[in-house]
Amino acid sequence: MDVLLIMTVALCGLSENLPNAPVRAITKPSADVILSFVQPGCLAEIACKEGDLVKAGQLLARLEDSLERAQYAQILAQSEDTTQVKASQASLEQRKVDLQRLEAAAQRKAATELEVEHARLDVRIAELSLELAQFEHMQAGLKLKEAQARLDRMKLLSPIEGRVEEVFLEVGEAVNALDKVVRVVKVDPLWIDASIPITQAVFISLGSSVTVEFPEPQPMSSNGRVVFIAQVADAASQTIRVKIEVPNPTGRPAGEHVRVICQRPDKSR
Protein backbone atom coordinates (compact mmCIF):
# COMPACT_ATOMS: atom_id res chain seq x y z
CA MET A 1 0.00 0.00 0.00
CA ASP A 2 2.83 2.43 0.87
CA VAL A 3 4.60 1.66 -2.40
CA LEU A 4 1.40 2.30 -4.36
CA LEU A 5 0.89 5.66 -2.60
CA ILE A 6 4.46 6.76 -3.33
CA MET A 7 4.12 5.80 -6.99
CA THR A 8 0.81 7.69 -7.27
CA VAL A 9 2.31 10.86 -5.77
CA ALA A 10 5.35 10.58 -8.05
CA LEU A 11 3.19 10.19 -11.13
CA CYS A 12 1.08 13.20 -10.14
CA GLY A 13 4.19 15.28 -9.74
CA LEU A 14 5.53 14.09 -13.06
CA SER A 15 2.28 14.90 -14.85
CA GLU A 16 2.55 18.55 -13.80
CA ASN A 17 5.75 18.83 -15.84
CA LEU A 18 4.54 17.05 -18.93
CA PRO A 19 4.04 19.18 -22.06
CA ASN A 20 0.51 20.65 -22.13
CA ALA A 21 -0.25 19.24 -18.66
CA PRO A 22 -3.04 21.26 -16.96
CA VAL A 23 -2.01 23.66 -14.22
CA ARG A 24 -4.41 24.29 -11.36
CA ALA A 25 -5.15 27.93 -10.52
CA ILE A 26 -7.83 30.18 -9.03
CA THR A 27 -9.66 32.99 -10.78
CA LYS A 28 -9.79 36.48 -9.25
CA PRO A 29 -11.37 39.83 -10.17
CA SER A 30 -9.48 41.95 -12.67
CA ALA A 31 -10.17 44.86 -10.31
CA ASP A 32 -11.01 44.77 -6.60
CA VAL A 33 -11.09 48.09 -4.75
CA ILE A 34 -12.18 49.00 -1.24
CA LEU A 35 -13.11 52.67 -1.03
CA SER A 36 -12.71 54.91 2.02
CA PHE A 37 -13.06 58.58 2.88
CA VAL A 38 -9.83 60.45 3.66
CA GLN A 39 -11.45 62.44 6.46
CA PRO A 40 -13.92 61.69 9.25
CA GLY A 41 -17.58 62.66 9.13
CA CYS A 42 -21.15 61.46 9.27
CA LEU A 43 -22.41 59.26 6.44
CA ALA A 44 -25.24 61.20 4.80
CA GLU A 45 -25.96 59.05 1.75
CA ILE A 46 -25.33 55.58 0.37
CA ALA A 47 -26.11 55.81 -3.34
CA CYS A 48 -25.69 52.11 -4.10
CA LYS A 49 -26.52 48.68 -2.75
CA GLU A 50 -24.77 45.34 -2.91
CA GLY A 51 -25.09 43.81 -6.37
CA ASP A 52 -25.51 47.13 -8.21
CA LEU A 53 -23.67 47.60 -11.48
CA VAL A 54 -21.81 50.90 -11.40
CA LYS A 55 -19.87 52.95 -13.91
CA ALA A 56 -16.56 54.69 -13.40
CA GLY A 57 -17.16 58.07 -11.75
CA GLN A 58 -20.58 57.10 -10.34
CA LEU A 59 -21.44 58.37 -6.86
CA LEU A 60 -21.39 55.60 -4.24
CA ALA A 61 -21.54 57.43 -0.90
CA ARG A 62 -21.46 60.96 0.54
CA LEU A 63 -20.57 62.48 3.90
CA GLU A 64 -22.59 65.32 5.47
CA ASP A 65 -21.33 68.31 3.46
CA SER A 66 -23.69 71.22 4.18
CA LEU A 67 -20.85 73.36 5.57
CA GLU A 68 -18.61 72.66 2.59
CA ARG A 69 -21.44 73.45 0.15
CA ALA A 70 -22.15 76.76 1.91
CA GLN A 71 -18.46 77.71 1.79
CA TYR A 72 -18.31 76.77 -1.88
CA ALA A 73 -21.34 78.92 -2.70
CA GLN A 74 -19.81 81.89 -0.88
CA ILE A 75 -16.47 81.60 -2.66
CA LEU A 76 -18.22 81.03 -5.98
CA ALA A 77 -20.04 84.33 -5.57
CA GLN A 78 -16.78 86.08 -4.74
CA SER A 79 -15.00 84.57 -7.74
CA GLU A 80 -17.77 85.71 -10.09
CA ASP A 81 -17.91 89.24 -8.67
CA THR A 82 -15.85 91.64 -10.83
CA THR A 83 -17.15 94.83 -9.19
CA GLN A 84 -13.83 95.71 -7.54
CA VAL A 85 -11.90 95.16 -10.77
CA LYS A 86 -14.32 97.36 -12.72
CA ALA A 87 -14.22 100.06 -10.05
CA SER A 88 -10.43 100.08 -10.06
CA GLN A 89 -10.39 100.24 -13.85
CA ALA A 90 -12.78 103.20 -13.83
CA SER A 91 -10.70 104.97 -11.15
CA LEU A 92 -7.54 104.51 -13.22
CA GLU A 93 -9.19 105.94 -16.33
CA GLN A 94 -10.37 108.96 -14.34
CA ARG A 95 -6.88 109.55 -12.91
CA LYS A 96 -5.40 109.43 -16.41
CA VAL A 97 -7.91 112.03 -17.63
CA ASP A 98 -7.08 114.26 -14.64
CA LEU A 99 -3.38 113.94 -15.42
CA GLN A 100 -3.86 114.89 -19.07
CA ARG A 101 -5.83 117.98 -18.07
CA LEU A 102 -3.23 119.08 -15.52
CA GLU A 103 -0.40 118.53 -18.00
CA ALA A 104 -2.25 120.71 -20.54
CA ALA A 105 -2.91 123.34 -17.86
CA ALA A 106 0.76 123.30 -16.86
CA GLN A 107 1.74 124.13 -20.43
CA ARG A 108 -0.45 127.22 -20.12
CA LYS A 109 1.08 127.98 -16.71
CA ALA A 110 -2.35 127.31 -15.16
CA ALA A 111 -1.10 124.41 -12.99
CA THR A 112 2.07 123.93 -11.00
CA GLU A 113 4.61 121.15 -11.48
CA LEU A 114 3.74 119.88 -8.00
CA GLU A 115 0.10 119.40 -8.98
CA VAL A 116 1.17 117.50 -12.09
CA GLU A 117 3.47 115.29 -10.04
CA HIS A 118 0.65 114.51 -7.61
CA ALA A 119 -1.58 113.57 -10.53
CA ARG A 120 1.08 111.20 -11.88
CA LEU A 121 1.32 109.56 -8.47
CA ASP A 122 -2.46 109.20 -8.38
CA VAL A 123 -2.30 107.40 -11.74
CA ARG A 124 0.38 105.05 -10.44
CA ILE A 125 -1.62 104.35 -7.28
CA ALA A 126 -4.71 103.63 -9.40
CA GLU A 127 -2.68 101.22 -11.56
CA LEU A 128 -1.52 99.36 -8.46
CA SER A 129 -5.07 99.29 -7.10
CA LEU A 130 -6.23 97.70 -10.36
CA GLU A 131 -3.45 95.12 -10.20
CA LEU A 132 -4.41 94.33 -6.60
CA ALA A 133 -8.08 93.92 -7.54
CA GLN A 134 -7.13 91.60 -10.41
CA PHE A 135 -4.86 89.60 -8.10
CA GLU A 136 -7.59 89.23 -5.48
CA HIS A 137 -10.01 88.12 -8.19
CA MET A 138 -7.51 85.50 -9.34
CA GLN A 139 -7.05 84.37 -5.73
CA ALA A 140 -10.80 83.95 -5.42
CA GLY A 141 -10.67 81.62 -8.41
CA LEU A 142 -7.96 79.54 -6.74
CA LYS A 143 -9.94 79.44 -3.50
CA LEU A 144 -12.91 78.21 -5.51
CA LYS A 145 -10.83 75.25 -6.76
CA GLU A 146 -9.77 74.56 -3.17
CA ALA A 147 -13.38 74.66 -2.00
CA GLN A 148 -14.35 72.32 -4.85
CA ALA A 149 -11.61 69.90 -3.79
CA ARG A 150 -12.89 69.95 -0.19
CA LEU A 151 -16.41 69.28 -1.45
CA ASP A 152 -15.21 66.44 -3.69
CA ARG A 153 -13.51 64.76 -0.73
CA MET A 154 -16.94 64.38 0.84
CA LYS A 155 -17.97 62.01 -1.97
CA LEU A 156 -16.94 58.48 -2.89
CA LEU A 157 -16.94 57.87 -6.64
CA SER A 158 -16.35 54.48 -8.22
CA PRO A 159 -12.92 54.42 -9.92
CA ILE A 160 -13.93 51.46 -12.10
CA GLU A 161 -16.86 49.98 -13.94
CA GLY A 162 -17.98 46.93 -12.01
CA ARG A 163 -20.33 45.58 -9.36
CA VAL A 164 -20.81 46.60 -5.74
CA GLU A 165 -19.61 43.60 -3.74
CA GLU A 166 -19.96 44.94 -0.18
CA VAL A 167 -21.35 47.98 1.64
CA PHE A 168 -19.77 48.17 5.09
CA LEU A 169 -21.67 51.10 6.69
CA GLU A 170 -25.17 52.58 6.90
CA VAL A 171 -26.51 56.12 6.61
CA GLY A 172 -26.09 58.08 9.83
CA GLU A 173 -23.03 56.21 11.05
CA ALA A 174 -19.90 58.09 12.06
CA VAL A 175 -17.02 57.44 9.72
CA ASN A 176 -13.35 57.65 10.57
CA ALA A 177 -10.73 58.42 7.95
CA LEU A 178 -9.83 55.30 5.92
CA ASP A 179 -12.73 53.22 7.29
CA LYS A 180 -14.01 50.71 4.75
CA VAL A 181 -17.18 51.99 3.11
CA VAL A 182 -17.80 50.26 -0.23
CA ARG A 183 -16.08 47.44 -2.13
CA VAL A 184 -16.35 47.34 -5.92
CA VAL A 185 -15.13 44.44 -8.07
CA LYS A 186 -14.80 43.80 -11.78
CA VAL A 187 -15.10 40.18 -12.95
CA ASP A 188 -15.22 40.72 -16.70
CA PRO A 189 -12.55 39.94 -17.56
CA LEU A 190 -11.29 37.57 -14.88
CA TRP A 191 -7.61 37.31 -14.01
CA ILE A 192 -5.74 34.14 -13.19
CA ASP A 193 -2.31 33.97 -11.55
CA ALA A 194 -0.99 30.57 -12.58
CA SER A 195 2.29 29.00 -11.53
CA ILE A 196 3.41 27.55 -14.85
CA PRO A 197 6.27 25.02 -14.90
CA ILE A 198 9.34 26.39 -16.62
CA THR A 199 9.18 23.51 -19.09
CA GLN A 200 5.87 24.92 -20.33
CA ALA A 201 6.50 28.64 -19.76
CA VAL A 202 9.33 28.73 -22.29
CA PHE A 203 6.78 28.20 -25.05
CA ILE A 204 4.50 31.12 -24.15
CA SER A 205 4.88 34.89 -24.52
CA LEU A 206 2.83 38.02 -23.93
CA GLY A 207 -0.39 37.72 -25.91
CA SER A 208 -0.20 33.93 -26.14
CA SER A 209 -3.52 32.09 -26.04
CA VAL A 210 -4.13 29.48 -23.33
CA THR A 211 -7.10 27.26 -22.57
CA VAL A 212 -8.93 27.71 -19.27
CA GLU A 213 -11.25 24.93 -18.12
CA PHE A 214 -13.93 25.88 -15.60
CA PRO A 215 -15.40 23.29 -13.20
CA GLU A 216 -18.85 21.97 -12.35
CA PRO A 217 -21.72 22.74 -12.00
CA GLN A 218 -21.34 24.79 -15.19
CA PRO A 219 -18.27 23.34 -16.87
CA MET A 220 -16.93 25.28 -19.82
CA SER A 221 -13.72 25.94 -21.69
CA SER A 222 -12.56 29.44 -22.58
CA ASN A 223 -9.58 31.01 -24.30
CA GLY A 224 -7.42 33.22 -22.11
CA ARG A 225 -4.66 35.64 -23.05
CA VAL A 226 -1.30 35.97 -21.31
CA VAL A 227 -0.89 39.55 -20.06
CA PHE A 228 2.12 39.16 -17.75
CA ILE A 229 5.05 36.78 -17.33
CA ALA A 230 7.30 37.08 -14.29
CA GLN A 231 11.01 37.48 -14.95
CA VAL A 232 12.08 35.45 -11.90
CA ALA A 233 11.14 31.80 -11.46
CA ASP A 234 10.45 30.13 -8.14
CA ALA A 235 13.54 28.01 -7.56
CA ALA A 236 11.82 25.57 -5.20
CA SER A 237 8.90 24.67 -7.46
CA GLN A 238 10.58 25.49 -10.79
CA THR A 239 7.54 27.52 -11.85
CA ILE A 240 6.95 31.03 -13.19
CA ARG A 241 4.01 33.26 -12.30
CA VAL A 242 1.92 34.00 -15.37
CA LYS A 243 -1.11 36.29 -15.35
CA ILE A 244 -3.91 35.33 -17.71
CA GLU A 245 -6.92 37.42 -18.72
CA VAL A 246 -10.13 35.53 -19.48
CA PRO A 247 -13.34 37.09 -20.87
CA ASN A 248 -16.29 36.52 -18.55
CA PRO A 249 -19.44 37.79 -20.28
CA THR A 250 -21.65 35.41 -18.28
CA GLY A 251 -20.46 36.82 -14.96
CA ARG A 252 -19.01 33.70 -13.37
CA PRO A 253 -17.87 34.45 -9.81
CA ALA A 254 -14.19 34.94 -9.07
CA GLY A 255 -12.53 32.39 -6.80
CA GLU A 256 -13.23 29.25 -8.84
CA HIS A 257 -10.58 26.56 -9.17
CA VAL A 258 -9.73 26.18 -12.86
CA ARG A 259 -7.25 24.30 -15.02
CA VAL A 260 -4.93 26.19 -17.34
CA ILE A 261 -3.56 24.43 -20.41
CA CYS A 262 -0.68 26.00 -22.32
CA GLN A 263 -0.61 24.89 -25.92
CA ARG A 264 2.88 23.81 -26.93
CA PRO A 265 3.79 24.66 -30.53
CA ASP A 266 3.64 21.78 -33.01
CA LYS A 267 7.24 21.19 -34.16
CA SER A 268 6.08 19.18 -37.15
CA ARG A 269 4.77 22.33 -38.84
Task: Please give a structural write-up.
The model is unreliable at 1-16 (pLDDT under 50). Helix 2 packs antiparallel against helix 4 (113-152) and helix 3 (83-107) packs antiparallel against helix 4 (113-152). This protein starts with a helix and ends in a 7-residue tail after the last strand. The chain contains five helices and twelve strands. It is an alpha+beta fold and 269 residues long. It has a six-stranded antiparallel beta barrel with strand order 1-8-11-10-9-12. A four-stranded antiparallel beta sheet has the order 5-4-2-7, with no helix packed on it. The chain folds into two domains: 19-63 and 167-262, Elongation Factor Tu (Ef-tu), domain 3 (Beta Barrel), CATH 2.40.30.170; 66-152. The chain is elongated, with a radius of gyration of 35 Å.
Can you tag this structure with a few keywords?
269 residues; alpha+beta; Elongation Factor Tu (Ef-tu), domain 3; 2 domains; 6-stranded antiparallel beta barrel; 4-stranded antiparallel sheet; 5 helices; disordered N terminus
How would the blueprint of this fold be written?
Blueprint: H1 2-16, E1 23-35, E2 41-46, E3 53-54, E4 59-63, H2 66-80, H3 83-107, H4 113-152, E5 155-157, E6 162-167, E7 174-175, E8 182-197, H5 198-201, E9 209-214, E10 220-229, E11 239-246, E12 257-262
Antiparallel strand pairs: 1-8, 1-12, 2-4, 2-7, 3-6, 4-5, 6-8, 8-11, 9-10, 9-12, 10-11
Helix pairs in contact: 2-4, 3-4
- Percent of residues in beta strands? 25-35%
Assign the CATH superfamily of the largest domain: Efflux pump adaptor protein, beta barrel domain
What does the average pLDDT come to?
A: 90
Secondary structure category: alpha+beta
Number of strands: 12
- Helix content percent band: 25-40%
Order of helices and strands: HEEEEHHHEEEEHEEEE
The radius of gyration over CA amounts to 35 Å
Number of domains: 2
Shape: elongated
